[in-house]
Amino acid sequence: MHGTGTADLLTAAAAALVVIAIIGALYTHRFGLSHLLVFLVVGMLAGVDGPLGLSFDNYALAVHVGNLALALILFDGGLRTRWRQVRDGVLPAGLLATAGVAATACLVATLAHLALDVPWAQGLLLGAAVSSTDAAAVFAQFSASQLKLSPRLTATIELESGMNDPVAMVLTLGLIAWMAAPGAADGHAASSLAVLLPLLAQQLGLGLLAGAAGGWLLAAWLRRLPVTDDHDGLAALLMAATGLLLFAVTNRAGGSGFLAVYLAGLLVRHRAERLTLMSLPGLNGYTWLAQAVMFLLLGLLVTPHEVGHLLAPGLAVAAGLMLLARPAAVVACLAPLRFSWREQCFVAWSGLRGGVPIVLAAYPVMAGVPGAWRLFDVAFLVVVLSLLIQGPTLAPLARALKLVRP
């Protein structure tokens, strides 16, 4: 009976935190603030420095839950993307998700080396963690602001947010393996690259293969199922389960599960559209629950008084990312494709950071990388400032640049 009472208290506490976060998000949304930011703040208030004083330092649990949530969010994002959008934005989004991520990581590494006085390897690790835009944050902000932009611009931003998470994940894990290699500590570039490059090729190659094969097979199977219009709830549950199954199998095989589920979602939407559209309303509820739990756990991990000690260098890194690194990467990728300067400005500013950088920054902590907790705290600051500054100003900037269509 004592165990049952404890379980009831934990359930009540978790449910109460979600309810408080949702109510707060509904009210703060009037000011253009992201719902995700409210979930994060509620998690912090429940943490060790908040009124509840809950002590939570289980990075492994937070990362595991975060990975499942991100997989579900990416699969949902792929299912919501029309094939025409893919054709319009695949080239610019692909460049931003690969070369743009690498360029951003390198520039942030320079900023971190100067502002935090960390070794170049750790600076590059921080750069990799914060280099990708966040699909959940981008999708939520675009849906909330109801911006009507040109098809190519919308497709570029949304596709990039789905495609660059796997690249940032692979780069982060590869860098951790690189730093653990015998030659990395001695600065032996050849030995380091011998560890990093095969891992990158394996993750991306198997992710692409699993996503293409899994998406095609899943769509063919779904079209044969006797699903009627009153099975929308079952359709949503089926989609969520198959997406997570593909994610787990691909990761187990050594590939990027994030890349696989996003690509599979695109193919399923294209080849099994009726069942996809039927499942989207129910799937939307699952993704919101996943986001809420993920951000609450990430907020619990943060110790605000420790973050305060890194406020000045963290602000410098965040400002450099928003005003220098991200714009430079966008210009380098989009200027050759004849995007106007207005469109480049908007794409640069729409690079919202969300749960992905915090989850990625937790990996070095679990791997025992020296000084990793500083990288985690700075990544947290970057996310908060991005949601606090870039999110509310996204729609006004689009109107000021005259990019909004009637």
UniProtKB/TrEMBL annotation:
<feature type="transmembrane region" description="Helical">
    <location>
        <begin position="91"/>
        <end position="114"/>
    </location>
</feature>
<feature type="transmembrane region" description="Helical">
    <location>
        <begin position="284"/>
        <end position="304"/>
    </location>
</feature>
<feature type="transmembrane region" description="Helical">
    <location>
        <begin position="6"/>
        <end position="27"/>
    </location>
</feature>
<feature type="domain" description="Cation/H+ exchanger transmembrane">
    <location>
        <begin position="19"/>
        <end position="399"/>
    </location>
</feature>
<keyword id="KW-0406">Ion transport</keyword>
<feature type="transmembrane region" description="Helical">
    <location>
        <begin position="34"/>
        <end position="53"/>
    </location>
</feature>
<keyword id="KW-0050">Antiport</keyword>
<protein>
    <submittedName>
        <fullName>Potassium/proton antiporter</fullName>
    </submittedName>
</protein>
<keyword id="KW-1003">Cell membrane</keyword>
<feature type="transmembrane region" description="Helical">
    <location>
        <begin position="346"/>
        <end position="366"/>
    </location>
</feature>
<dbReference type="InterPro" id="IPR006153">
    <property type="entry name" value="Cation/H_exchanger_TM"/>
</dbReference>
<dbReference type="Pfam" id="PF00999">
    <property type="entry name" value="Na_H_Exchanger"/>
</dbReference>
<feature type="transmembrane region" description="Helical">
    <location>
        <begin position="234"/>
        <end position="250"/>
    </location>
</feature>
<keyword id="KW-0812">Transmembrane</keyword>
<keyword id="KW-1133">Transmembrane helix</keyword>
<keyword id="KW-0813">Transport</keyword>
<dbReference type="InterPro" id="IPR038770">
    <property type="entry name" value="Na+/solute_symporter_sf"/>
</dbReference>
<feature type="transmembrane region" description="Helical">
    <location>
        <begin position="378"/>
        <end position="398"/>
    </location>
</feature>
<keyword id="KW-0472">Membrane</keyword>
<feature type="transmembrane region" description="Helical">
    <location>
        <begin position="201"/>
        <end position="222"/>
    </location>
</feature>
<feature type="transmembrane region" description="Helical">
    <location>
        <begin position="310"/>
        <end position="334"/>
    </location>
</feature>
<feature type="transmembrane region" description="Helical">
    <location>
        <begin position="59"/>
        <end position="79"/>
    </location>
</feature>
